[in-house]
Design brief:
Blueprint lengths: L2 H22 L2 H5 L11 H4 L12 H8 L20 H9 L3 H11 L3 H7 L11 H4 L7 H15 L14 E5 L3 H12 L3 E5 L8 H4 L8 H13 L3 E3 L10 H6 L2 E6 L5 E2 L12 E3 H9 L16 E5 L3 H12 L4 E6 L10 H9 L3 E4 L1 E8 L5 E14 L5 E14 L2 E4 L3 E2 L3 H5 L25 E3 L2 H4 L4 H21 L1
Parallel strand pairs: 1-2, 1-4, 2-3, 4-15, 6-13, 7-8, 7-13, 8-9
Antiparallel strand pairs: 5-14, 10-11, 11-12
Length: 490
Amino acid sequence: MNIKDKELITARRAETWRATLRQEIKAKERSQMERVKMSELDPEIRSRNNEEVNQGLTIEQAMLEAQRCIDCPDPTCMDGCPVGINIPTFIKNIERGEFLEAARVLKETSALPAVCGRVCPQEKQCESRCIHVRTKKESVAIGHLERFAADYERESGQMSIPEIPEKNGIKIAVVGSGPAGLSFAGEMAKMGYEITVFEALHEIGGVLKYGIPEFRLPNEIVDVEINVLKQMGVQFIIDCIVGKTISYDDLHEEGFRGIFVASGAGLPNFMDIPGENLINVLSANEYLTRVNLMGAATDGETVVYKGKNVAIIGGGNTAMDAVRTARRLGADRAMIVYRRSEEEMPARIEEIKHAKEEGVELLTLQNPIEYIGDENGKVRQMRLQKMQLGEPDDSGRRSPVPIEGAIETVDVDEVIVSVGVSPNPLIPREFHGLEISRRGTIVVNQESMQSSLDDVFAGGDIVRGGATVILAMGDGRKAAHAMHEKFMNK
Protein backbone atom coordinates (compact mmCIF):
# COMPACT_ATOMS: atom_id res chain seq x y z
CA MET A 1 0.00 0.00 0.00
CA ASN A 2 1.46 3.37 -1.02
CA ILE A 3 1.47 6.59 1.01
CA LYS A 4 -1.48 8.13 -0.86
CA ASP A 5 -3.65 5.05 -0.19
CA LYS A 6 -2.78 5.22 3.53
CA GLU A 7 -3.63 8.93 3.64
CA LEU A 8 -6.97 8.27 1.92
CA ILE A 9 -7.90 5.54 4.42
CA THR A 10 -6.89 7.76 7.33
CA ALA A 11 -8.97 10.66 5.96
CA ARG A 12 -12.05 8.42 5.57
CA ARG A 13 -11.69 7.11 9.11
CA ALA A 14 -11.30 10.64 10.43
CA GLU A 15 -14.44 11.83 8.68
CA THR A 16 -16.38 8.89 10.13
CA TRP A 17 -15.49 9.65 13.74
CA ARG A 18 -15.90 13.38 13.22
CA ALA A 19 -19.43 12.80 11.90
CA THR A 20 -20.14 10.75 15.02
CA LEU A 21 -18.88 13.56 17.25
CA ARG A 22 -21.11 16.07 15.43
CA GLN A 23 -24.15 13.89 16.12
CA GLU A 24 -23.31 13.42 19.80
CA ILE A 25 -23.18 17.16 20.52
CA LYS A 26 -24.84 19.66 18.18
CA ALA A 27 -23.10 22.87 17.10
CA LYS A 28 -25.52 25.09 19.03
CA GLU A 29 -24.83 23.20 22.26
CA ARG A 30 -21.07 23.41 21.67
CA SER A 31 -21.20 27.16 21.10
CA GLN A 32 -22.99 27.71 24.43
CA MET A 33 -20.24 26.05 26.48
CA GLU A 34 -17.97 28.33 28.48
CA ARG A 35 -14.22 28.36 27.88
CA VAL A 36 -12.19 26.50 30.51
CA LYS A 37 -9.76 28.42 32.70
CA MET A 38 -6.20 27.20 33.10
CA SER A 39 -4.95 27.14 36.68
CA GLU A 40 -2.01 29.37 37.63
CA LEU A 41 0.46 29.49 40.49
CA ASP A 42 -0.47 31.94 43.24
CA PRO A 43 1.15 35.34 42.53
CA GLU A 44 2.60 35.61 46.05
CA ILE A 45 4.39 32.29 45.61
CA ARG A 46 5.43 32.50 41.97
CA SER A 47 6.91 36.01 42.22
CA ARG A 48 9.58 34.52 44.51
CA ASN A 49 10.53 31.50 42.40
CA ASN A 50 11.10 30.45 38.81
CA GLU A 51 8.37 27.82 38.54
CA GLU A 52 6.12 27.87 35.49
CA VAL A 53 3.14 30.15 36.10
CA ASN A 54 0.58 28.46 33.85
CA GLN A 55 -0.15 24.94 35.07
CA GLY A 56 -1.76 23.42 31.98
CA LEU A 57 -5.13 21.71 31.52
CA THR A 58 -6.23 18.46 33.13
CA ILE A 59 -7.50 15.64 30.90
CA GLU A 60 -11.08 16.48 31.87
CA GLN A 61 -10.59 20.19 31.10
CA ALA A 62 -8.95 19.47 27.75
CA MET A 63 -11.70 17.09 26.59
CA LEU A 64 -14.36 19.57 27.70
CA GLU A 65 -12.69 22.50 25.94
CA ALA A 66 -12.25 20.42 22.78
CA GLN A 67 -16.02 19.98 22.70
CA ARG A 68 -16.40 23.73 22.14
CA CYS A 69 -14.89 23.36 18.65
CA ILE A 70 -17.81 23.02 16.22
CA ASP A 71 -15.56 21.59 13.46
CA CYS A 72 -16.32 24.31 10.91
CA PRO A 73 -16.56 23.29 7.24
CA ASP A 74 -14.24 26.24 6.53
CA PRO A 75 -11.86 26.36 9.55
CA THR A 76 -10.80 30.00 9.52
CA CYS A 77 -8.64 29.38 12.60
CA MET A 78 -6.12 27.67 10.30
CA ASP A 79 -5.79 30.88 8.28
CA GLY A 80 -4.30 32.52 11.36
CA CYS A 81 -1.65 29.84 11.95
CA PRO A 82 1.73 30.67 10.35
CA VAL A 83 2.76 27.00 10.29
CA GLY A 84 -0.57 25.64 9.02
CA ILE A 85 -1.49 23.29 11.87
CA ASN A 86 -4.60 21.21 11.14
CA ILE A 87 -6.37 22.70 14.13
CA PRO A 88 -9.82 21.02 13.91
CA THR A 89 -8.27 17.56 13.48
CA PHE A 90 -5.94 17.79 16.46
CA ILE A 91 -8.72 19.23 18.64
CA LYS A 92 -11.21 16.52 17.66
CA ASN A 93 -8.62 13.88 18.53
CA ILE A 94 -8.48 15.40 22.01
CA GLU A 95 -12.28 15.34 22.25
CA ARG A 96 -12.36 11.59 21.60
CA GLY A 97 -9.46 10.90 23.96
CA GLU A 98 -6.82 10.19 21.30
CA PHE A 99 -4.21 12.48 22.82
CA LEU A 100 -1.14 10.89 21.22
CA GLU A 101 -2.78 11.14 17.82
CA ALA A 102 -3.49 14.83 18.50
CA ALA A 103 0.21 15.34 19.20
CA ARG A 104 1.12 13.51 16.00
CA VAL A 105 -1.13 15.84 13.98
CA LEU A 106 0.60 18.86 15.54
CA LYS A 107 4.00 17.51 14.56
CA GLU A 108 2.99 17.19 10.91
CA THR A 109 3.60 20.92 10.51
CA SER A 110 5.04 22.24 13.80
CA ALA A 111 8.53 21.41 15.06
CA LEU A 112 7.84 22.97 18.48
CA PRO A 113 4.23 22.33 19.61
CA ALA A 114 4.96 22.41 23.36
CA VAL A 115 6.78 25.73 22.89
CA CYS A 116 4.07 27.28 20.74
CA GLY A 117 1.37 26.19 23.17
CA ARG A 118 3.10 28.33 25.79
CA VAL A 119 4.46 31.46 24.13
CA CYS A 120 2.60 32.06 20.86
CA PRO A 121 0.11 34.96 20.80
CA GLN A 122 -2.83 32.75 19.81
CA GLU A 123 -5.24 35.53 20.76
CA LYS A 124 -3.90 37.56 17.80
CA GLN A 125 -3.59 34.62 15.39
CA CYS A 126 -5.57 31.35 15.28
CA GLU A 127 -7.92 32.16 18.16
CA SER A 128 -8.75 35.57 16.72
CA ARG A 129 -10.14 33.77 13.64
CA CYS A 130 -12.29 31.32 15.65
CA ILE A 131 -15.95 31.39 14.60
CA HIS A 132 -16.99 31.93 18.24
CA VAL A 133 -15.37 35.38 18.15
CA ARG A 134 -17.76 36.45 15.39
CA THR A 135 -20.68 35.77 17.73
CA LYS A 136 -19.08 37.70 20.60
CA LYS A 137 -18.08 34.57 22.51
CA GLU A 138 -14.65 33.49 23.74
CA SER A 139 -12.64 31.55 21.19
CA VAL A 140 -11.75 27.90 21.59
CA ALA A 141 -8.55 27.74 23.72
CA ILE A 142 -6.44 26.46 20.85
CA GLY A 143 -3.15 27.34 22.53
CA HIS A 144 -4.08 25.60 25.79
CA LEU A 145 -5.10 22.48 23.85
CA GLU A 146 -1.87 22.50 21.81
CA ARG A 147 0.13 22.64 25.02
CA PHE A 148 -1.98 19.85 26.54
CA ALA A 149 -1.43 17.45 23.63
CA ALA A 150 2.32 18.10 23.49
CA ASP A 151 2.70 17.81 27.27
CA TYR A 152 0.63 14.62 27.41
CA GLU A 153 2.83 13.00 24.79
CA ARG A 154 6.02 14.00 26.60
CA GLU A 155 4.78 12.83 29.99
CA SER A 156 3.53 9.53 28.52
CA GLY A 157 7.03 8.61 27.38
CA GLN A 158 5.68 7.77 23.94
CA MET A 159 7.18 10.56 21.87
CA SER A 160 6.46 10.11 18.18
CA ILE A 161 9.21 10.83 15.69
CA PRO A 162 8.11 12.00 12.22
CA GLU A 163 8.83 9.48 9.47
CA ILE A 164 12.16 10.26 7.79
CA PRO A 165 12.86 9.09 4.22
CA GLU A 166 16.21 7.80 3.04
CA LYS A 167 18.81 10.59 2.97
CA ASN A 168 19.19 12.27 -0.41
CA GLY A 169 22.84 13.20 0.12
CA ILE A 170 22.28 16.97 0.00
CA LYS A 171 23.90 18.84 2.90
CA ILE A 172 22.20 21.99 4.20
CA ALA A 173 23.59 24.42 6.80
CA VAL A 174 21.40 26.33 9.25
CA VAL A 175 22.78 29.44 10.97
CA GLY A 176 21.17 29.82 14.39
CA SER A 177 19.12 27.45 16.53
CA GLY A 178 16.22 29.72 17.38
CA PRO A 179 12.62 29.03 16.32
CA ALA A 180 13.18 29.83 12.62
CA GLY A 181 16.27 27.61 12.39
CA LEU A 182 14.69 24.71 14.30
CA SER A 183 11.51 24.85 12.23
CA PHE A 184 13.50 24.87 8.98
CA ALA A 185 15.71 22.01 10.19
CA GLY A 186 12.73 19.84 11.08
CA GLU A 187 10.99 20.36 7.75
CA MET A 188 14.13 19.67 5.72
CA ALA A 189 14.93 16.55 7.74
CA LYS A 190 11.45 15.21 6.95
CA MET A 191 12.30 15.59 3.25
CA GLY A 192 15.55 13.64 3.45
CA TYR A 193 18.20 16.39 3.67
CA GLU A 194 21.32 16.18 5.82
CA ILE A 195 20.96 19.14 8.19
CA THR A 196 23.62 20.75 10.36
CA VAL A 197 22.67 23.63 12.67
CA PHE A 198 25.45 26.01 13.74
CA GLU A 199 24.85 27.81 17.04
CA ALA A 200 27.10 30.64 18.26
CA LEU A 201 26.29 30.12 21.97
CA HIS A 202 26.84 27.10 24.21
CA GLU A 203 23.15 26.19 24.42
CA ILE A 204 20.81 25.18 21.59
CA GLY A 205 17.52 27.05 21.34
CA GLY A 206 18.36 30.68 20.59
CA VAL A 207 15.83 33.14 21.98
CA LEU A 208 13.80 30.23 23.39
CA LYS A 209 16.64 29.71 25.89
CA TYR A 210 18.25 33.12 26.41
CA GLY A 211 15.26 35.40 25.86
CA ILE A 212 12.28 33.71 27.51
CA PRO A 213 12.37 33.04 31.29
CA GLU A 214 11.69 29.59 32.67
CA PHE A 215 8.56 30.76 34.49
CA ARG A 216 7.06 31.18 31.01
CA LEU A 217 8.94 28.50 29.05
CA PRO A 218 10.95 25.90 31.01
CA ASN A 219 14.25 24.89 29.40
CA GLU A 220 13.25 21.25 29.85
CA ILE A 221 10.41 21.77 27.37
CA VAL A 222 12.74 23.27 24.77
CA ASP A 223 15.27 20.46 25.25
CA VAL A 224 12.62 17.79 24.63
CA GLU A 225 11.62 19.41 21.33
CA ILE A 226 15.29 19.69 20.30
CA ASN A 227 15.86 16.04 21.17
CA VAL A 228 13.13 15.05 18.70
CA LEU A 229 15.03 16.90 15.97
CA LYS A 230 18.21 15.08 16.96
CA GLN A 231 16.39 11.76 16.63
CA MET A 232 15.30 12.89 13.17
CA GLY A 233 18.98 13.13 12.25
CA VAL A 234 19.57 16.87 12.65
CA GLN A 235 23.16 17.63 13.74
CA PHE A 236 23.98 20.54 16.06
CA ILE A 237 27.33 22.32 16.42
CA ILE A 238 27.60 24.78 19.33
CA ASP A 239 30.11 27.57 20.03
CA CYS A 240 30.48 28.15 16.30
CA ILE A 241 29.96 31.61 14.84
CA VAL A 242 29.19 31.49 11.13
CA GLY A 243 30.93 34.49 9.57
CA LYS A 244 33.73 34.33 12.13
CA THR A 245 34.55 30.78 13.25
CA ILE A 246 33.53 29.45 9.85
CA SER A 247 32.98 31.45 6.67
CA TYR A 248 30.55 31.30 3.76
CA ASP A 249 33.32 29.80 1.59
CA ASP A 250 34.18 27.27 4.30
CA LEU A 251 30.59 25.99 4.25
CA HIS A 252 30.83 25.47 0.50
CA GLU A 253 34.16 23.65 0.84
CA GLU A 254 32.56 21.33 3.39
CA GLY A 255 29.91 20.39 0.84
CA PHE A 256 26.91 22.41 1.98
CA ARG A 257 24.72 23.18 -1.02
CA GLY A 258 22.21 25.42 0.73
CA ILE A 259 22.24 27.79 3.71
CA PHE A 260 19.35 29.02 5.83
CA VAL A 261 20.22 32.11 7.86
CA ALA A 262 18.27 32.44 11.10
CA SER A 263 20.76 34.45 13.14
CA GLY A 264 18.13 36.62 14.80
CA ALA A 265 18.09 40.19 16.02
CA GLY A 266 20.37 40.28 19.01
CA LEU A 267 21.62 43.84 18.73
CA PRO A 268 19.75 45.94 21.34
CA ASN A 269 18.46 49.43 20.62
CA PHE A 270 18.88 52.33 23.04
CA MET A 271 17.21 55.75 23.22
CA ASP A 272 20.34 57.92 23.02
CA ILE A 273 19.47 59.99 26.08
CA PRO A 274 21.83 61.34 28.79
CA GLY A 275 22.99 58.79 31.34
CA GLU A 276 22.54 55.62 29.27
CA ASN A 277 26.23 54.81 29.85
CA LEU A 278 25.85 54.77 33.64
CA ILE A 279 26.52 51.58 35.59
CA ASN A 280 23.43 49.35 35.97
CA VAL A 281 21.77 50.70 32.82
CA LEU A 282 21.65 47.75 30.43
CA SER A 283 19.63 46.20 27.64
CA ALA A 284 16.91 43.61 28.20
CA ASN A 285 18.87 41.29 25.89
CA GLU A 286 21.92 41.35 28.14
CA TYR A 287 19.88 41.14 31.32
CA LEU A 288 17.79 38.15 30.25
CA THR A 289 20.76 36.34 28.68
CA ARG A 290 22.78 36.67 31.88
CA VAL A 291 19.90 35.32 33.96
CA ASN A 292 18.37 32.72 31.62
CA LEU A 293 21.42 31.30 29.86
CA MET A 294 24.34 32.04 32.14
CA GLY A 295 22.84 31.27 35.54
CA ALA A 296 23.45 34.72 36.99
CA ALA A 297 20.37 34.44 39.20
CA THR A 298 21.67 31.28 40.88
CA ASP A 299 25.01 32.73 41.96
CA GLY A 300 26.93 31.22 39.09
CA GLU A 301 30.14 32.64 37.68
CA THR A 302 28.16 35.22 35.71
CA VAL A 303 26.94 38.14 37.82
CA VAL A 304 23.89 40.33 37.34
CA TYR A 305 23.06 43.26 39.58
CA LYS A 306 19.90 42.61 41.60
CA GLY A 307 18.33 46.03 41.90
CA LYS A 308 15.77 47.01 44.50
CA ASN A 309 14.16 49.84 42.50
CA VAL A 310 14.15 48.58 38.91
CA ALA A 311 12.70 50.35 35.88
CA ILE A 312 12.12 48.55 32.58
CA ILE A 313 11.69 50.87 29.61
CA GLY A 314 9.23 49.48 27.06
CA GLY A 315 5.89 47.67 26.87
CA GLY A 316 6.47 44.50 24.84
CA ASN A 317 6.73 40.85 25.86
CA THR A 318 10.48 41.18 26.42
CA ALA A 319 9.89 44.10 28.78
CA MET A 320 7.36 41.99 30.71
CA ASP A 321 9.84 39.11 30.90
CA ALA A 322 12.51 41.45 32.24
CA VAL A 323 10.33 43.16 34.86
CA ARG A 324 8.92 39.87 36.14
CA THR A 325 12.47 38.51 36.32
CA ALA A 326 13.50 41.56 38.36
CA ARG A 327 10.72 40.80 40.84
CA ARG A 328 11.97 37.26 41.18
CA LEU A 329 15.48 38.55 41.82
CA GLY A 330 14.26 40.54 44.79
CA ALA A 331 13.20 43.96 43.49
CA ASP A 332 11.03 45.80 46.02
CA ARG A 333 9.76 48.10 43.30
CA ALA A 334 9.63 46.86 39.70
CA MET A 335 8.29 49.36 37.18
CA ILE A 336 7.31 49.31 33.52
CA VAL A 337 7.82 52.75 31.96
CA TYR A 338 5.85 53.05 28.72
CA ARG A 339 5.17 56.15 26.66
CA ARG A 340 1.69 55.10 25.57
CA SER A 341 -1.33 53.80 27.50
CA GLU A 342 -1.75 50.27 28.88
CA GLU A 343 -4.32 49.49 26.18
CA GLU A 344 -1.68 50.12 23.52
CA MET A 345 1.04 47.95 25.01
CA PRO A 346 2.23 45.37 22.45
CA ALA A 347 2.75 42.72 25.14
CA ARG A 348 0.25 39.87 25.40
CA ILE A 349 -2.73 40.64 27.63
CA GLU A 350 -1.87 37.56 29.69
CA GLU A 351 1.68 38.80 30.32
CA ILE A 352 0.44 42.22 31.47
CA LYS A 353 -2.11 40.53 33.76
CA HIS A 354 0.54 38.26 35.28
CA ALA A 355 2.94 41.15 35.80
CA LYS A 356 0.34 43.25 37.63
CA GLU A 357 -0.65 40.29 39.80
CA GLU A 358 3.02 39.91 40.77
CA GLY A 359 3.26 43.49 42.00
CA VAL A 360 4.67 45.22 38.93
CA GLU A 361 3.81 48.92 38.58
CA LEU A 362 2.83 50.32 35.18
CA LEU A 363 4.04 53.90 34.70
CA THR A 364 2.19 54.56 31.46
CA LEU A 365 2.18 57.73 29.37
CA GLN A 366 5.69 58.48 30.63
CA ASN A 367 9.00 58.51 28.83
CA PRO A 368 12.55 58.67 30.24
CA ILE A 369 14.56 61.72 29.15
CA GLU A 370 17.60 61.37 31.42
CA TYR A 371 19.28 59.03 33.90
CA ILE A 372 21.16 60.57 36.82
CA GLY A 373 24.12 58.87 38.47
CA ASP A 374 25.85 59.05 41.84
CA GLU A 375 29.50 59.87 42.55
CA ASN A 376 30.50 56.31 41.58
CA GLY A 377 28.83 56.47 38.18
CA LYS A 378 25.89 54.24 39.16
CA VAL A 379 22.36 55.15 38.16
CA ARG A 380 20.27 56.49 41.06
CA GLN A 381 17.39 58.38 39.45
CA MET A 382 15.49 58.79 36.19
CA ARG A 383 13.67 61.84 34.89
CA LEU A 384 10.35 61.01 33.28
CA GLN A 385 8.49 63.19 30.78
CA LYS A 386 4.72 62.82 31.09
CA MET A 387 2.97 62.23 27.76
CA GLN A 388 -0.49 62.45 26.26
CA LEU A 389 -1.88 60.70 23.20
CA GLY A 390 -2.04 62.79 20.06
CA GLU A 391 -2.83 61.89 16.46
CA PRO A 392 -2.46 58.28 15.21
CA ASP A 393 0.92 57.36 13.70
CA ASP A 394 1.51 55.28 10.53
CA SER A 395 0.61 52.07 12.35
CA GLY A 396 -2.73 53.48 13.48
CA ARG A 397 -1.70 53.96 17.10
CA ARG A 398 -2.04 57.43 18.58
CA SER A 399 1.33 59.11 18.83
CA PRO A 400 2.49 60.15 22.31
CA VAL A 401 3.12 63.87 22.73
CA PRO A 402 5.06 65.45 25.64
CA ILE A 403 3.12 67.57 28.13
CA GLU A 404 5.15 70.73 28.48
CA GLY A 405 6.75 71.14 31.90
CA ALA A 406 5.38 67.83 33.24
CA ILE A 407 8.57 66.10 34.39
CA GLU A 408 9.09 64.01 37.52
CA THR A 409 12.12 62.34 39.06
CA VAL A 410 11.96 58.73 40.28
CA ASP A 411 14.56 56.85 42.34
CA VAL A 412 16.05 53.79 40.60
CA ASP A 413 19.15 51.68 41.07
CA GLU A 414 18.79 49.65 37.87
CA VAL A 415 17.36 50.44 34.44
CA ILE A 416 16.69 47.80 31.79
CA VAL A 417 16.05 49.15 28.30
CA SER A 418 13.65 47.16 26.11
CA VAL A 419 12.82 49.41 23.15
CA GLY A 420 13.45 46.99 20.31
CA VAL A 421 16.32 45.17 18.66
CA SER A 422 18.26 45.30 15.41
CA PRO A 423 19.38 42.34 13.29
CA ASN A 424 22.63 40.57 14.04
CA PRO A 425 25.04 42.39 11.67
CA LEU A 426 27.60 39.60 11.24
CA ILE A 427 26.04 37.57 8.42
CA PRO A 428 24.96 40.62 6.38
CA ARG A 429 28.51 41.93 6.68
CA GLU A 430 30.35 38.67 5.91
CA PHE A 431 28.13 37.13 3.20
CA HIS A 432 29.16 39.32 0.28
CA GLY A 433 26.43 39.81 -2.29
CA LEU A 434 23.48 39.78 0.12
CA GLU A 435 20.97 42.56 -0.40
CA ILE A 436 20.46 44.35 2.91
CA SER A 437 17.69 46.77 3.86
CA ARG A 438 18.37 50.13 5.49
CA ARG A 439 17.38 48.50 8.82
CA GLY A 440 20.09 45.89 8.41
CA THR A 441 17.73 43.01 7.64
CA ILE A 442 18.33 40.51 4.86
CA VAL A 443 16.08 41.21 1.88
CA VAL A 444 14.27 38.08 0.69
CA ASN A 445 11.55 37.05 -1.71
CA GLN A 446 8.54 36.94 0.62
CA GLU A 447 7.10 33.90 -1.14
CA SER A 448 10.24 31.75 -1.00
CA MET A 449 12.44 33.44 1.64
CA GLN A 450 15.31 33.26 -0.88
CA SER A 451 17.92 36.02 -0.71
CA SER A 452 19.89 37.70 -3.48
CA LEU A 453 22.45 34.87 -3.13
CA ASP A 454 21.10 31.83 -4.97
CA ASP A 455 21.96 29.30 -2.24
CA VAL A 456 21.06 31.47 0.78
CA PHE A 457 17.57 31.61 2.27
CA ALA A 458 16.71 33.50 5.46
CA GLY A 459 13.90 33.91 7.98
CA GLY A 460 12.92 35.03 11.45
CA ASP A 461 14.21 38.20 13.06
CA ILE A 462 17.16 38.58 10.66
CA VAL A 463 14.48 39.25 8.02
CA ARG A 464 11.68 40.72 10.13
CA GLY A 465 13.79 42.73 12.56
CA GLY A 466 11.95 41.41 15.61
CA ALA A 467 8.80 39.26 15.68
CA THR A 468 7.09 36.35 17.43
CA VAL A 469 8.26 32.76 17.76
CA ILE A 470 5.48 31.43 15.56
CA LEU A 471 6.12 33.92 12.74
CA ALA A 472 9.79 32.88 12.76
CA MET A 473 8.72 29.24 12.60
CA GLY A 474 6.44 30.03 9.69
CA ASP A 475 9.39 31.57 7.85
CA GLY A 476 11.46 28.45 8.47
CA ARG A 477 8.78 26.15 7.17
CA LYS A 478 8.16 28.29 4.09
CA ALA A 479 11.88 28.50 3.32
CA ALA A 480 12.30 24.74 3.67
CA HIS A 481 9.62 23.93 1.11
CA ALA A 482 10.91 26.61 -1.27
CA MET A 483 14.49 25.31 -1.02
CA HIS A 484 13.27 21.75 -1.55
CA GLU A 485 11.36 22.83 -4.66
CA LYS A 486 14.49 24.57 -5.94
CA PHE A 487 16.53 21.36 -5.64
CA MET A 488 13.77 19.26 -7.18
CA ASN A 489 13.58 21.58 -10.18
CA LYS A 490 17.35 21.32 -10.65
